Amino acid sequence: MSDSDLGREFREEMDTLMQQLMESIPKVVGSIDTRIALPPEAGNILADFHEPLPETGTGAQATIERLIELNDKAGGNVVGPKSYHFVIGGSTPAALAADLLATAYEAITYTWVLSPTGVEMEKQALDWLKELFGLPQDWPGIMVTGATMANFVCLASGRQWWGEQLGFDVSEIGMAGLPQMPVLTSGFVHAATLKCLAVQGIGRGNVQKFCRDDFGRLDIAAMEKALIELDGKPAMVIVNAGEVNAGEFDPVNEMIDLARRHNCWVHVDGAFGLFAKASPRIAHLVEGVEKADSVTVDGHKWLNVPYDSGYAFVRDHGLMARAFRYSADYLPDQNDTRPTPGAIGPESSRRARSFAVWATLKAYGREGQRRIVEHCLDITQHCAKRVKEEERLELMNDPQLNIVSFRYNPGGLDEEEIDDFNDKLGQAVLADGRFLVGTSKMGARTIFRPAFSNWRTRKEDVDELIEVVLEIAASMH
Ligand SMILES: Cc1ncc(COP(=O)(O)O)c(C=O)c1O
Predict the structure, then answer these.
(1) What is the DSSP string of 96-134?
(2) What percent of the chain lies above the pLDDT cut of 90?
(3) Which of 34, 207, 371, 472 has the least C-beta neighbours within 10 A?
(4) Domain shared by 176 and 266, yes or no
């Protein structure tokens, strides 16, 4: 096949395939409400999925048909109304359409000349997000894959600050030979944050957690004592705005004020909790966040944009630029005044996540985001009410955000037996597949922790969740 044959064939195939997609995409999106959350037979269907590299291939049309067939039968329906595992959002219509277009245009947002629209949309969308979250407009920000990488950016900027406080540029000399960086937080710190500290040479085992109970709530007096003992040495304080087991918060305002009285970099992980700002009902939970140094937010959770999408906001552009600096003769240099997001964050080549974020904020505005958040708050309260109504279910925490912690408790069992039953029940609910919801721990206790972050979820879905949990539990006695 000569190059021109290949070009002609692919162009023709592309046209046919796009016609095919115009039929299949509406079906895929149209069945989100009805496709099962996690097909119980997925493992069997995929058992013989792996095969040697095809020599000639089956052609695009047959391949895409196969992909749709496979995913309809064995794909998880995580954006459906019955997926409450982890913290998973849906996609607004505008965000989904814009994200499909980002792929169709194959927009790359490393630097301005690759996609002037994509890069300007990123800047605009980040400015809008700062308005939504009440963060200072002069803070730079960057779009990344999610809250893990947003934490990575924020912590790398904090690490840079810490090194400079001691007179070192850690991006140049590394961490070897330097003292350990003190990191103080509560028991609510997310595993993703610890992963970032691990890979940045700070050490996940180096984190000091100050807890006043076995759930991990902050012991602020103990943290204050430790900060006083540091006697002005630079340190990092991590504030957890929204933890994953019950949707609880560290005392954001108080904790930031405490850290500010000492020589600290203050990072707020608000992956989904920062969306409290979008509703006057609960905005007080993140009051004071603007006094921090860096803030993490996720988009694919409560903003309801497609995966993957997260945002890092950092007080000081210079720190981000020094932490992520890189250069080569063929790349834009520092005299280029047009934005190069790739030079202030971890990714160089990067897709245009900005399309979806810009589109959803442009289409629905602040009001639309408030409605999504408040819809989920109402669903959460409904779920808590349903739990309280059922004799065999026990509400473990009064939800203030979007997570309901509960367990099955038929009576007559001790705590370990209840945990054991709920562990098994959690596995059985996942194996059943009608709902994607798992268990976790609240302190020592096993709990279900459905997290509601999707505009698609309706009260009747929650009613059905309660019925399914009770039905499966009854079948296990
Ligand atoms: C508080 C918090 N931080 C970080 C993360 C990691 O987010 P991602 O999976 O988007 O990287 C999560 C995910 O649930 C989270 O809830």
Answers:
(1) HHHHHHHHHHT-B-SSTTT-HHHHHHHHHHHHHHHHHHT
(2) 96
(3) 34
(4) yes
Same domain, yes or no: 352 and 309: yes
Can you tell me the distance from the alpha carbon of 65 to that of 49, in angstroms, rounded to the nearest whole number? Answer: 15
- pLDDT tens profile 131-147: 999 999 999 999 999 99
- Helices 415-432 & 459-476, crossing angle to 10 degrees? 120
CA of 208 to the centre of ligand 1 (A): 20
Same domain flag for 261 and 306? yes
Q: Which of 298, 302, 353, 402 to mutate to test the pocket of ligand 1 (most atoms within 8 A of CB)?
A: 298
Yes or no: say if 190 and 152 are a contact pair by the CB < 8 Å rule: no
- Could you tell me if 394 and 298 are in contact, meaning their C-beta atoms sit under 8 angstroms apart? no
* Residue 422 resides in a domain: no
Final residue in a domain of this structure, among 36, 58, 77: 77
Q: Number of folded domains in the chain?
A: 2
Which uninterrupted H or E stretch holds 446?
strand 445-448
Whether residue 180 sits in one domain with residue 72: no
Residue 236 domain flag: yes
Distance in Å, CA 163 to ligand 1 centroid: 26
Q: Whose CA is nearest to atom 1 of ligand 1?
A: 271
CA of 9 to the centre of ligand 1 (A): 43
CB 298 less than 6 A from any atom of ligand 1: yes
The per-residue pLDDT for range 13-64, each reduced to its tens digit, is 999 999 999 999 999 999 999 999 999 999 999 999 999 999 999 999 999 9
Rounded Cα distance between 468 and 386, Å, is: 13
For ligand 1, whether the C-beta of 86 sits within 6 Å is: yes
In-domain check, residue 369:
no
Q: What is the CATH number of the domain that holds 217?
A: 3.40.640.10
Q: Is 192 in the pocket of ligand 1 (CB under 6 A)?
A: yes
| 30 and 125 co-located in one domain | no
Q: Is 190 in the pocket of ligand 1 (CB under 6 A)?
A: yes
Atom 2 of ligand 1, nearest CA residue: 271
Q: Which atom of ligand 1 is nearest to the CA of 310?
A: 10
Same domain? 241 vs 308: yes
Does one domain contain both 114 and 222?
A: yes
State whether the beta carbon of 269 lies less than 6 angstroms from ligand 1: yes
Domain assignment present for 474: no
Residues 33 and 125 in one domain: no
Select from 345, 363, 381 the last residue of a domain.
363
| Residue 87, ligand 1, Cβ within 6 A | yes
What is the atom index within ligand 1 of the atom nearest the CA of 300? Answer: 10
Atom from ligand 1 closest to the CA of residue 241: 1
Q: What is the distance between the alpha carbons of residues 445 and 420, in angstroms, rounded to a whole number?
A: 10
| Among protein residues, the one whose CA lies closest to atom 5 of ligand 1 | 147
Identify any residues that bridge with 292 across adjacent strands, giving them in sequence order: none
pTM, entire model: 0.97
Q: Residue 3: pLDDT band by 50, 70, 90 thresholds? A: low
Owning domain of residue 26: 3-77
